[in-house]
Amino acid sequence: MTNAPTQQQEQEQAEPELPMLSAPADGLPPVVADEAALARTVAAFAAGTGPVAVDAERASGYRYGQRAFLVQLRREGAGTALIDPDALPDLSSLGAVLADAEWVLHAANQDLPCLAEVGMRPTRLFDTELGSRIAGLPRVGLGAVVEELLGLRLAKEHSAVDWSTRPLPEPWLTYAALDVEVLVQVRDALAERLAAQGKLEWALEEFAAVADAPAPVPPAEPWRRVSGLHAVRSRRQLAVVRALWQARDEEARRRDTSPGRLLPDSAIVAAARATPRTPQALASTSGFTGRAAKSKLQTWADAVAAALALPEADLPAHTPRGDGPPPPRAWAAKDPLAAARLGAARAAVTALAEEHGLPVENLLQPDALRRVAWAPPQPLEAEGVRAALAARGARPWQLDLVAAPVAAAMAQARVTEADPGPAPVED
User: Fold this and answer.
1) Are strands 153-154 and 79-83 parallel, antiparallel or unpaired?
2) Cα torsion at 36, 40, 41, 47 (round to 10°)?
3) By the 8 A CB rule, do 267 and 287 touch?
4) Do the beta carbons of residue 245 and residue 226 sit within 8 Å?
5) What pTM was computed for the model?
6) Start and end of every HRDC domain (predicted)?
7) Using an 8 Å Cβ cutoff, are 68 and 47 in contact?
8) N or C, which end of the chain has less CB nearby within 10 Å?
9) What is the pLDDT of residues 338-361, one digit of tens each?
10) Beta strands 79-83 and 31-32, pairing class
């Protein structure tokens, strides 16, 4: 007896498989790895026309930091170039001839820092990932966007490989070349969709803000980004996390390896909670059994010991010091009216985002909303809210949509008996 086909099987049979983009149209170019080849590439891209598709591959999870190990470009009249920034760490000559071109990137914020390190900075850009969010696409990964807009499948099986490998295998290079193969076509199709939705000017304002943004400032306490830190309760335990993170970071930088390959975050948290007093006790702690962790066991043990010996005054605070308002969960206890303002403003922004088919965070940065709700302008009117949000980086298109509704929502917010009780206050 044969089982009846499922609805999913019937749908798969009814929908033909999209064609796979499997090879660059012009063939796979050789990797540019010497000054003579770079000079030829610069000349070719200077003579090219129109936007330039740009991408970069990093060795995240393998090497220390986020530097580029391959830069890919494609432009009409110039074709595709694959450049090795490990061999050519200064690409400022290429950046200079592309200074006036529109750069097309997917998730530009991920690539711009490592491109800047090699001397490449755009003055204008089109971010196909950010544009896809504004257009309301359900999935915004490059492969999904290519499928949605161009009806092509894009292989993504090499996205997490070690791009510091030399020589780079040909299948990896093909994958890298295909990442820029149709990026300009995606840009054109997406611009057309955004224009039809009345959102193209919104997107262009967002792209300009990305291009003009200053270099990201490293966090003051990067060790607080350890995954699972919420399970660490006491300040003494936080000191152990800090000490182990710093020891791991120093060793990872020295070895040029990803910190997580030496010691996983879970091991740091486990050690902080157990506070082992000897190297032997540390060796039996979860996460310290791998070869890389064992090779520096005395280093980790010394870090733990130093943290346990710190005087109370030198222990880290429970929460990072900042210039912003307290965590929202503490607002109901500290300032119930501010909590009511935030709840009302969030509801207004969420409704607007749904109305316009936008992710909430792309309509307005949550931090800007929190800060204005905590310390609103007086009087609480649309123009004051507009100015306060603008000071926090909101773009004109965002202000046109949210300033008046947010001001009205906050002005009408009231503390009532139906409001939730006080939330616990953090130290």
Assistant:
1) unpaired
2) 160
3) yes
4) yes
5) 0.90
6) 234-314
7) no
8) N
9) 999 999 999 999 999 999 999 999
10) parallel
- Calculate the CA dihedral of residues 115, 118, 123, 128 and round it to 10 degrees: -20
Within 13 Å and on the Cβ side, how many CA atoms surround 297?
17
What are phi and psi for residue 56, nearest 5 degrees? -145, 150
SS3 call for 335: coil
370: tokens are 């929190």
State the angle between helix axes of 200-212 and 183-196 in degrees (0 to 180), rounded to the nearest 10.
Answer: 130
d(CA 205, CA 217): 22
Stated as kind and residue range, the H or E segment containing 352 is helix 336-356
* Distance separating alpha carbons of residues 194 and 132, to the nearest angstrom: 9
pLDDT at 15: 60
Tokens of 111: 């690539």
With H, G, I as helix, E, B as strand and everything else as coil, classify residue 121. Answer: coil
Query: Comparing C-alpha atoms, which of 262, 260, 261, 282 is closest to residue 273?
Result: 282
In contact, 184 and 128? CB cutoff 8 Å:
no
Residue 321 has a pLDDT of: 74
Residue 204: which residues within 8 A CB-CB, separation 6 or more?
Answer: none
pLDDT along the chain (427 residues), means of 10: 52 70 94 98 98 97 96 98 98 97 97 97 98 97 96 84 96 96 98 98 98 91 96 96 98 96 96 94 91 92 97 93 85 96 98 97 97 96 97 97 98 74 42
Phi, psi (deg, nearest 5) at residue 283 = -60, -25
Taking CA atoms, 28 is separated from 23, 171, 178, 325, in Å, by 8, 10, 9, 53
Q: Which residue has the tokens 């709700």?
A: 373
Q: What are phi and psi of 359, to 5 degrees?
A: -65, 140
Res 425: pLDDT: 38
**E runs forming strands in 13-123:** 20-21, 31-32, 49-58, 68-76, 79-83, 102-105
Query: b/e map of 399-424 (b: 16 or more CB within 10 Å)?
Result: bebbbbbbbbbbeebeeeeeeeeeee
Contact 81, 104 (CB under 8 A): no
Judged by DSSP in three states, 79 sits in strand
Are the C-beta atoms of residues 69 and 163 closer than 8 Å to each other? yes
Is omega for the bond preceding 379 within 30 degrees of 0, making it cis? yes
How many Cβ atoms from other residues are within 10 Å of residue 253's Cβ?
Answer: 12
